Amino acid sequence: MIADEVADYIKQGESLTVEFKSDRAGFSDDKLAEAVTCLANGKGGTLLVGVEDDGTITGARPRHGDTTDPLRLQATISNKTVPPVVTEVKLIEISDKVVLAISVPQSDFVTGTARGLYVRRALGGDGRPGCVPFLAHEMLAERIQRSETDYALIAEPQATMDDLDPHEFERMRRLAGLTTSSVLSTLDDVELGRALNVIDGKDDALIVRRGALLLFGHPTSIQRFIPTHETAFQVTDNTSVRQNIFAHDPLLKSAETLYDQLQRYNDEEEIDIGLTRVAVPRMSPIAVREIIANALVHRDYTLMGPLAVRLNSDELVVENPGGFPHGVTLDNLLTSSRPRSRTLSEAFFRSGLVERVGRGVNRVYESTLRTGRTVPDYTRSDSFNVRVSLPTGSADLAVVKFIVEHDERSGRPFSLPELQIVHALLDGPRIRLGELARITQMSETATRSTLTRMVESGVVELRGNGRARQYTLTAATYRKLSSKAGYVRVQDFEPMQQEQMVLTYVRAHGSISRREAAELCAVTSESAKALLQEMRKRGVLNLVGERRGARYVIPDTGRAQ
């Protein structure tokens, strides 16, 4: 952190991630620890000591004799916070005043001071950011959000076995009997609850946890003990509502019911591939099952609001209360898995309603792309709700045929990254490695390995060299995708586009070298040489200089024209 950066923070004023503290009257180490925990319990940020609330720089006093030792202050902060917060302290001089700039990371755990004080950064009643008390129910919700506490393991003292429905235990046994967890199908109700870790205690004093109520509870008991749980299923046709159902059913029943309701609207198209007739559903059953299971397992049960499933002619939208679990973002959705409740997640896995714990989103993506549709859309999610949209319009049957034929011919089905790359290159004919790595959410090294495999199999081809390398689909792939014109457009338009790019560059910079032309047009050095020589032959460019000093310029007549 440098002086200009700190000055910019001060100029912009306080925010949820920037806090000013005056040190004119003395800002004690205990107060400093409190301010650090406040930011750590929020989104992290920067604490500036020696700055007034209005942005006036008054300076921070020395803390260790005649100076302030940043490393010693970092150790003090760590010792006065629980769990210890590791900060970075710097002394920044601005306008002949010293400001303490303390970088505070967002904590993975609810953090307090060694004296037992818990605060968090939030907007106050006046609409301004500040430190407010971290209340018990807020702390519970935050601990669940950060996967510190499993909501399903919280005991419900007033609940008994009478609040649980024997039919739901039987449902679990039936589902488990179809999976590798078939041992669960042999257990009685109490043993089954204990195996899932949602019932505890001795037979004469059983402890019923909230997970047991969510999985096996009577609807009336769920409404009594967990009133936040509710599901809503809605089907609309333009502006009219065809179906609108609300329920407080336990989770396994909710999952099966919502899935069956959607399947009634899951029409199919058919396509002939060789001698086989392949059905292409409006919604991938795998995607539907995984999305519903994910929403039920990962929703925040401390928040009010139903899990909403809405279907219309264009999309299926599933929305559940609570943002992504701590550490999960749109940029790592496919590579990061942090279940809000590991107990519920494990129960769904052992029931067979999900096939692999932590891989649900990947399966949603893969199965949707295989039906010839675009990727699921999570971009409308925020810190309060997760919203996923599945396209339900007409499928691209040529893409479906291409995928099925490739899998049969190669004996190895396309992986999810390969499917993402094919769809991405259909939308953007030439894409660089870095962008494809962002799309697949893999490292550039892993993405390059995937692309190498696709080049070797004839699906993708590489154009250009060095940093100018780009990938595109091959002519054979375009043919199989019933888009012969696509490859022609990519290839035949290039010389004209490249020539215009070169001329624009020369007009802007006066000249161009072969290396610069190769990088500009994303082609090899030899291709750039051929392009420049052709333009020189036609009198569009002139060559000046020799060998490494050779550059191409626009003739005076060409410049005038």
What would your notes on this structure say?
The protein is an alpha+beta fold and 561 residues long. It folds into five domains: 3-134, Methyltransferase, Cobalt-precorrin-4 Transmethylase, Domain 2 (2-Layer Sandwich); 152-225, no CATH class; 231-340 and 352-397, 2-Layer Sandwich (Heat Shock Protein 90), CATH 3.30.565.60; 412-489, Arc Repressor Mutant, subunit A (Orthogonal Bundle), CATH 1.10.10; 494-560, Winged helix-like DNA-binding domain superfamily/Winged helix DNA-binding domain (Arc Repressor Mutant, subunit A), CATH 1.10.10. The protein is 40% helix and 19% strand. The strands form eight sheets. It has a five-stranded mixed beta sheet with strand order 12-11-15-16-17, with helices on one face. The longest helix has 16 residues, at 494-509. The radius of gyration is 31 Å and the shape is flat.
Keywords for this entry:
single chain, 561 residues, 22 helices, alpha+beta, Methyltransferase, Cobalt-precorrin-4 Transmethylase, Domain 2, 4-stranded mixed β-sheet, 5 domains, Heat Shock Protein 90
Q: Residue ranges: pLDDT <50 for 5 or more in a row?
A: 484-489, 557-561
Name of the CATH architecture of the largest domain: 2-Layer Sandwich
> How many domains, in number, for the residues?
5
> Can you tell me the overall shape?
flat
Radius of gyration (Å): 31 Å
Helix tally equals: 22
- How much strand? 15-25%
- Termini, distance in Å? 52 Å
Report helical residue fraction: 40-55%
Structural class: alpha+beta
What does the average pLDDT come to?
87
CATH topology of the largest domain: Heat Shock Protein 90
Number of beta-strand segments: 21
Biggest sheet details: 5 strands, mixed
What's the level 1 CATH class of the largest domain? Answer: Alpha Beta
Provide the spatial order of strands within the biggest beta sheet.
12-11-15-16-17
